[in-house]
Amino acid sequence: xxxxxxxxxxxxxxxxxxxxxxxxxxxxxxxxxxxxxxxxxxxxxxxxxxxxxxxxxxxxxxxxxxxxxxxxxxxxxxxxxxxxxxxxxxxxxxxxxxxxxxxxxxxxxxxxxxxxxxxxxxxxxxxxxxxxxxxxxxxxxxxxxxxxxxxxxxxxxxxxxxxxxxxxxxxxxxxxxxxxxxxxxxxxxxxxxxxxxxxxxxxxxxxxxxxxxxxxxxxxxxxxxxxxxxxxxxxxxxxxxxxxxxxxxxxxxxxxxxxxxxxxxxxxxxxxxxxxxxxxxxxxxxxxxxxxxxxxxxxxxxxxxxxxxxxxxxxxxxxxxxxxxxxxxxxxxxxxxxxxxxxxxxxxxxxxxxxxxxxxxxxxxxxxxxxxxxxxxxxxxxxxxxxxxxxxxxxxxxxxxxxxxxxxxxxxxxxxxxxxxxxxxxxxxxxxxxxxxxx
Amino acid sequence: xxxxxxxxxxxxxxxxxxxxxxxxxxxxxxxxxxxxxxxxxxxxxxxxxxxxxxxxxxxxxxxxxxxxxxxxxxxxxxxxxxxxxxxxxxxxxxxxxxxxxxxxxxxxxxxxxxxxxxxxxxxxxxxxxxxxxxxxxxxxxxxxxxxxxxxxxxxxxxxxxxxxxxxxxxxxxxxxxxxxxxxxxxxxxxxxxxxxxxxxxxxxxxxxxxxxxxxxxxxxxxxxxxxxxxxxxxxxxxxxxxxxxxxxxxxxxxxxxxxxxxxxxxxxxxxxxxxxxxxxxxxxxxxxxxxxxxxxxxxxxxxxxxxxxxxxxxxxxxxxxxxxxxxxxxxxxxxxxxxxxxxxxxxxxxxxxxxxxxxxxxxxxxxxxxxxxxxxxxxxxxxxxxxxxxxxxxxxxxxxxxxxxxxxxxxxxxxxxxxxxxxxxxxxxxxxxxx
Lengths: 439, 435
What we know:
The structure holds two protein chains of two kinds.
Chain A: H1 9-20, H2 26-31, H3 37-46, H4 73-100, H5 104-116, H6 121-124, H7 127-140, H8 145-152, H9 156-161, H10 175-185, H11 193-202, E1 206-209, E2 214-217, E3 227-229, E4 232-234, H12 238-246, H13 250-263, H14 271-281, H15 286-294, E5 306-307, H16 310-320, H17 330-343, H18 365-380, H19 392-403, H20 409-418, H21 422-431, H22 433-436, E6 437-438
Antiparallel strand pairs in A: 1-2, 3-4, 5-6
Helix pairs in contact in A: 1-3, 3-15, 4-16, 5-7, 7-8, 10-11, 14-15, 17-18, 18-21, 19-20, 19-21, 20-21
Chain B: H1 8-11, H2 17-27, H3 46-55, E1 64-70, E2 80-81, H4 86-92, E3 103-106, E4 109-111, H5 116-123, E5 127-134, H6 142-151, H7 162-169, E6 178-180, E7 197-198, H8 209-218, H9 227-256, H10 278-290, E8 297-302, H11 311-335, E9 342-348, E10 368-373, E11 380-382, E12 400-401, H12 402-412, H13 418-421
Parallel strand pairs in B: 1-8, 1-9, 5-11, 5-12, 6-7, 6-8
Antiparallel strand pairs in B: 2-4, 3-4, 5-10, 9-10
Helix pairs in contact in B: 2-8, 3-9, 5-11, 8-9, 9-10, 10-11
């Protein structure tokens, strides 16, 4: 809604839930009424954890068989079929976990980091490695960024994705070094071409064993020679690569900026805000950073709205519809995952190492149609559709409460026109400009 | 669906031109005559646009530019190949093509064996190879380099794409003036005031019945919207315009598609971007052009060219996909009266390092060749081939500025002033297009 001035604490609290969880239910929103933004974030941070929700099991992926050069066509087909099945298992697991978890901040930040260290399953070709990486985001996503970066630079999925696996002494492959500096820890302008090439030599030797799913440093593949990397000369390894990169003055503001862009606003923080946040972040304290973010004036500025990414929209919709993904019939589940594909956002398969698009890219006529189809699917199985009241007007009001939205006159009119059929009204509400945007 | 008549007035308070028409059509309340005028959209009515589209299809004399983006950094040196050059053979080792493998173009260069169809167009003098294309101070980042190519601004970051700025200045209000068939709209098509219509190759259909009418109603502008909400509403309002105008083209493209079940191939490169089979995208462009769509610029794409490892097979397969799609498209254009002024331009964000890496692949490089094809194109080589013995920090030197190619397209195909779109740039390539 276009409003002037600043949002009150209740509105800020609701907004924080919109950004730092996957969309709150009506009960969850009621629970934070009267809380200050700092209290809301404190509660969310106090409720982090990696325990899986009831009824969601750790997914089990068969270890990859050794591939031989002269693999038969049959074996190839079988491997492809297996990967396809594994991908569906992984997505189903994620959908259930993100939707049902009580540790919403954990899941929300794990999702953020999976877009930050964007890794694609099509090249990694192992749901097991992708899941293992995601568990690192779940366990470390609100901890220390330095620790997370240290784990990522030798993460098996990331090593395969960015050819770190092929990077060896005498034949360096620059891909991992370059993308790590540019997209993950430092940002453009914080390093030179020479740093990229030196960094690549420091990362040589890390090798992934697909049968165990582990990466290890193979000494004879590692380049021991001293290099000059970001102003430091000496032998370089993965640990010193991360230490040196994170010690650069541009690193904190880069990391803060990426989090801000996805969770606060497309308008970058001004310099006083950046100073406050850098102070909280210190040497990479993500929890302190999140706590400080919640207190930022930007959160009470009505203009700080962002466009929900399709997967965020989906999980939020599943939550407010009270759908339990664990009990979804297989056909509905397949349709939901296909719907995400049509929207252009299948988790674990970002378009590039640069991560997901943002903003207007998700607001095209094409995504609007795909979203409408998916919303109809969800509404048809949503338990909440039977609890919306008897009269059309009451249903429209109830939808506002369930989705946590104040309808514009336009949307209210559109919803009233179909409110005879609660399923249609619910589907339409999920597609409304008010709901596809995090206000 | 039934609408309670007591609510009809409040229903209309925010309903504008098109959607009101649509809404009435579905709801059957048009005859009651109880609708208030309400707030109307300041933008041109969609009905007007549709009328203009059918009343004024593109003239066969108006040029059309089709931009093909290859995401990931296509290896130019293994696309237009100096196979006979010993420096090339030594640098590329296992990755090198032998002289007898390439399709000879003369000048010591040959096409990748995956490009047999393009060789046919070369022989017919309809394929130009622009050599050594790049920009000053090459950047090895996919994202920065692609941003430079797509914004047309090598020195400063600008938020608009080069064809988006052309669209801003074109004076046309037709939402179909530019069309992106990319899965997500390519940034090159986004202007500051206007953007291309984004249209997935599978077509665009409002859901049937009440749900569809309801969705259309959500597309109405409303003064209470925040700016993102307004953008969301606008996108919804465009569904109908786009689908009404283009769905016949989708049907036609499906019909002429010999392999309708073609699935997008498994991607090898980490930096893909373009997804969705290129032949389907270009088949749709061909169908739209043949039907007289008013569109002057199209964007399509193919991804997967980031070949840091196991490059040879991957690249040859991708080039084969490009070749099949481009050749079929060009043959359709040459055979159709509305296709003679269509020019297709193919580029990637950079070429690759001259020396292969240790993984039977190549790292990010600089200059690369561009393909330009069409009946209006003067086939042959344009621009100097970068020397393999005068590398700049292990990379090929840039011999042709990419803005020269853009400028030539803007002026020669779109009839626009290049300087206006390219921040004053006036360079162009003589003899690339027929006068």
